[in-house]
UniProtKB/TrEMBL annotation, chains A, B, C, D:
Annotated Sulfatase-modifying factor enzyme-like domain residues: 183-420
Keywords noted in UniProt: Iron, Oxidoreductase
InterPro entries: CTDL_fold, DinB-like, EgtB, Sulfatase_Mod_Factor_Kinase, SUMF_dom, SUMF_sf
Protein name: Ergothioneine biosynthesis protein EgtB
Chain's gene name: egtB
Organism: Fictibacillus barbaricus
Length: 424, 424, 424, 424
């Protein structure tokens, strides 16, 4: 009992800690910034703040507290993202027209729902039902995902403004370490297992743990750097169709890609836009903001390939989860390495690593029941898996089995490249 | 001399009065509202405030004050609307991404430019050059046009938010008069003259005054009302191609038009969205927010036609400019009539009246020289002329010769219908 | 009576003569060519042949011969172009999918309808009703319009094939005359009349004859030549927004226009694609295949302007209708002039001349009743008037009052430029 | 040696036999049909005939016969499909504008290349190099793929013509067998192998044979029938988002899908368009012309799932390749079953079966070198694998390891559904 009580308290503390990070991240914005949606893929900051709150209201307060009165019944329409089984929702590409509710009102909404959740938890005392605990946990994981998107989307929005605003002032440079040269590590294959098992939170798309046959392979010790990527650019990579998938080449021509998103070439060399404003490109940092198509073309140009997600997970499973996460407040990939003893460096944090694996369900997997079954499963088509978290991911959010996924042409995520190779 | 000095003082007062109205109109908004652009045709309120200021800075301070230091050199790019000869500019459809400069900074920009202009005028003392006076006058007319757009665009933006925000609370109802029935007034034609002549300000597109032959004709005493327009709807007007121009019918099908913009049919009857929120449709008010296509189709269905702009001007030239303008703060067409003795009512204010005339240059017209030649002339294709001003136009802005113009499918302006007929 | 009988005979002969030209023009094609639709604006040759036939079947045989059995009831759907009041029709942009009916069947259809019409005319004997005569006349005028389109569309279709097929072999060169230099002719204005009156056929859009005030003006003696147009290109005309209407400049940038349609620049000079294959551009020929936007920009760059349609008609009304028409079988504008004594040359034939007049209805005009009222009237918006016919127009089809009309961005018509100027 | 000589003869016979089928299939068309491209995904019949010929000319005659003179040098541009490393090519979506070369010329081209290939083979005599043999084999496999597309595309083209032409007259009905009810067969999993090994032709995408872990599973004995699919429709399958992938649901709404492609509901029941014209839907035939999204939604609605391609291949590997192929000349899925003793029926022929596997490269796979490396590998993104061949596939073209692939929204292929299930 005392232990259960402790569990509720720990959950409440966890709740307050995760929720308050959203507000901290948003506090650096002006109200005018809160409503920008510079392309359909991004959401306005205010919308993230309200939608994550609605998630707790709709899936917990409304379901578990019979006397709960919704803050505003129209919010079910405004802040439902894509749960078809819950009802119709405001079109995703039009979130930028919602100047109301104002930021002030959204903060009030957050406060209202926070009070509701904390008081609900308190009421359970030492008998918190497992499904409620699970729902709160999902809600917090969900909020962490949106915290990452909040930063990712602000970066994109700001990059479209010729004034190139800074989200935050740069901290003292963390770029003091020398980058080691990338080497290739031999990994033994065989009939291995991947996927989540054990206690603690995981999403339905990480389960069940299952067998996979892997031929032995080699994995790069480091993610690809800006300097390495520039060699690809300068050797004509963006003009030579032979490196590219057919859809990738079509994207290169249609979008006129010549370099990663946010880069700009001047007479004076390469610059990149960051959350601390535009800055000179550091050649030793991991390359970031490339699409799957670019990652794949770079790999082919290099005579290498991308790892499958099974290869990635099998190699990384035992490496401690350390690195450059959102907690570092760098908001940008760095050179500095964590002091893990593994020969594989930067497995976690810095940049999401594209794998060669399309996002599909695991054998015998079971999506969640009800509307939350829509959380992950319905996106299992036309997307590629990324692994490892980035500099805008919460450290506590990442697991070796964590699967992120985006369409192959997306570049506004903090996405990078780690190469693999067959063992000949 | 004393008179000239007086002229400068009057101009300064006029300047202050017009400029401050923009700020008054914007003061009812929250900062989040200031940056919304719900479709490419509208501009965010903040952009209007900055662009009109830039107009004074760019065309007067930079040209006439050699020591003037621009507030921010990037504003030439951000707040140029479409003057190609001045340089490149931020794409019109992307104005909604400019969360910075903030509203606070824009107000500071306005203050800075206001001080510049007023001090320039003061420096001229009693020798203000004619071209400077003309430029200030153009700048103020320009600001008045954007004040109208500010309200028009806010209305559109707010209408896209399911919360249907009110721009301002409704004042006491002005709807006390009974609407008279529309009659048709015979107007004598012949070889008449239209176009501006004399003193006072006019745009280049209103000049020169020139001869036009008009057959005698009839003009409706009143604009078409909501009630009359509902008869068109209920008789199947939107389903019968025979009333419509080919392009109009294509628009009806593509846009799924079934009624004017902002209308909504409920079991309880018709409602319309206004700057004071959604309200029950008043059948006796002038119909508003129709496209040229709808105006034209309604006229054909009625067995009538729209007047040409020459017919309109010839009939209205001697009617005093009174009516429901922005100064009334109704921000909506009303029933009440001004007490003019003319048998033609509501010639000015309430709603812009579509004419059957494409917007073209007058015989022997000369556009302004330099970049301001782009103000009007380059739009003389694929647009239709509207006349008479509306409930969101400044009274001092309107003249009998004033030509407004929009594409035939635009509906977000306060645009309505007055019918005409051949004399058989 | 004898005279009436003669009228029927003449009408029958006229019918046979016009109808057989369509077949002659199509006889130079292979069956594979008959079904191409290289852009939505053009129609496949076979469709023109069938649609013009359907016009006679639907508006005459079905209406006037109660015992007429339609050749194929589905043809009302397949070959109705745009008559909404007649029923639904196959989408214009999908005419290119109709491989059936085959060419063989379409020729059979033509034969079937020809027999029907000629036998109907014969049955009337000397009492042919006026409306039938009028309908046959409209049908033939309609067929002549489509004969022009047939050639215009074949040219466009062939130009999209890298093999650049010849529609017909070039005849002996007609280009022996020297081109005279263009001069400007003074034309007296005043209260003039334009529009059709008298006997003979005219379209509803040419009526009624009506008064127009014209200031006196100057009109160029010749259409603009390729050589003159090249000066515009070489002086940077396509890179300088100041010459262009706003919509025109948008078209230049979007469509990447750098020269008229069908031109190609090689190291060896300019070439143009014609119905006799690609050939070296003759600098003294009238420029052809320019949009209204290009015509208007060229005029502004020249310090001149385009004439209004009233100016055009007033100046050309008394000039004999001679020139380079489809009967010449050149299918291309030529240098050679007709030997008219008028100082204004090439008023008719060679190239359609863009005017500055939007296409609108004449004062007090009455469209035809019934479905044929859709023939012209419903297109009176967003189009510009062209005058004078071209090298692919039938000579018998043209009148001084004839109004052709196209959207301002269309270039696949044989459209050129004649300049005008104010009399200062 | 005698054996080698025999090999050349056999190859020549095989060449003649495959090539002549294309001409036989095209012989049922009129020349007007040969040039239709009713949507960007399909190619005109004539283009297929020319492109397959170009493939032999370009990859064999030009490479292996130094004295070969190309039939027409422009054909490299016109009939290259997508080989970027060979040079630029005519845009895919514009193949329908190529009325020339005429069908007559294309047949002449085929004859010319056939003579070239056969004479080349003859010249080798008993020393045919392995790579030439391989290239001829690829060319023939390629031609078989295009024969299937030829039929598939004709069907689509004809379906867009309201006259609904028949490609061929229906033969005597083959629909005499009673359809057995579908049952589920248990298949043992384990560490199995899939992929091609051994002698005979295979594409690079089928290699190498490699290990895959499979949990044991159940596979349906029969493909899903029209009758079963109608239950899905009638239970509201197309209106209920819960069955659909997110991208699939978006496609349903955008394309307004309500049933498989080619179906039409009348008061009298369901009809479907076939290569023998429109006919009443037979409820016992395998459902055909569904997208992956529909196959996946149907499976979810059924409480089942689609098999992976490894599950499919593992289960089918030992079943003889018999069934309803193009040789049957039914050109439509049938009820009749082949007399295989396997409990799994209709493994091959009738309909391609969508699997749940995205199309990716096999572990350690090596694409072909040179331009032919583009044949398969560059499409390995955003496509799903289909297995088993269809009623328009050549029987000799199919192998258990054969991988077909299309985007998840494509429906014009002869694609159907076989369900699978986890073993609980
Ligand atoms: Fe979410
Ligand atoms: Fe402006
Ligand atoms: Fe027609
Ligand atoms: Fe091919």
């Amino acid at each position: 009992m005392a232990i259960e009580h402790l569990a509720v308290e720990r959950l409440s503390e966890h709740y307050k800690s995760v929720r308050s990070l959203s507000e901290k991240l948003a506090s650096r914005l002006q109200n005018e910034d809160s409503i920008i949606q510079a392309m359909p893929d991004v959401s306005p900051p205010k919308w993230h703040l309200a939608h994550t709150t609605w998630f707790f209201e709709r899936f917990i307060l409304k379901e578990k507290n019979p006397s709960y009165v919704p803050y505003n019944p129209q919010f079910d329409y405004l802040f439902n993202s894509y749960y078809e089984t819950i009802g119709s929702y405001h079109p995703r590409h039009s979130r930028g027209v919602l100047s109301r509710p104002s930021m002030e009102e959204v903060y009030d909404y957050r406060k209202h729902v926070n009070e509701g959740i904390l008081s609900l938890l308190k009421d359970y005392g030492d008998h918190i039902p497992e499904d409620v605990e699970e729902l709160v946990e999902i809600g917090l994981q969900h909020e962490q995902q949106h915290q990452e998107l909040l930063l990712t989307d602000i970066k994109y929005n700001f990059s479209c403004n010729p004034l190139l605003p800074e989200y935050v002032e740069a901290t003292l440079s963390l770029q003091t370490d020398l980058r080691s040269l990338s080497t290739y590590i031999n990994i033994d294959g065989g009939l291995v297992e991947i996927g989540f098992t054990g206690t603690g939170f995981s999403f339905d798309n990480e389960r069940p743990r299952h067998k996979v046959w892997l031929d032995s392979y080699k994995l790069a010790s480091h993610p690809v750097t800006n300097g390495e990527y520039i060699s690809f650019i300068e050797s004509g990579g963006y003009e030579q169709p032979e490196h590219w998938l057919s859809d990738g080449w079509a994207a290169v021509k249609k979008e006129k890609w010549k370099h990663p998103l946010y880069w700009r070439k001047t007479e004076d060399g390469w610059y990149t836009f960051t959350l601390t404003g535009e800055k000179r490109l550091n050649l030793d940092e991991p390359v970031c903001h490339v699409s799957f198509y670019e990652a794949d073309a770079f790999a082919r140009w290099s005579g290498k390939r991308l790892p499958t997600e099974a290869e990635w997970e099998h190699a990384m499973a035992s490496i401690p989860i350390e690195g450059n996460f959102v907690e570092s407040e760098a908001y940008h990939p760095v050179i500095r390495e964590s002091h893990t003893r593994s020969p594989i460096k930067k497995a976690y944090g810095d940049v999401w690593e594209w794998t060669s694996s399309p996002y599909t369900s695991y054998p015998q997997s079971k999506p969640l029941e009800g509307a939350l079954g829509e959380y992950n499963a319905k996106f299992m088509c036309n997307q590629m898996v990324l692994r490892g978290g980035s500099c805008v991911t919460s450290q506590s959010h990442i697991r070796p089995t964590y699967r992120n996924f985006f369409q192959a042409d997306k570049r506004w995520q903090f996405s990078g490249i780690r190469l693999a190779e067959d063992l000949s």
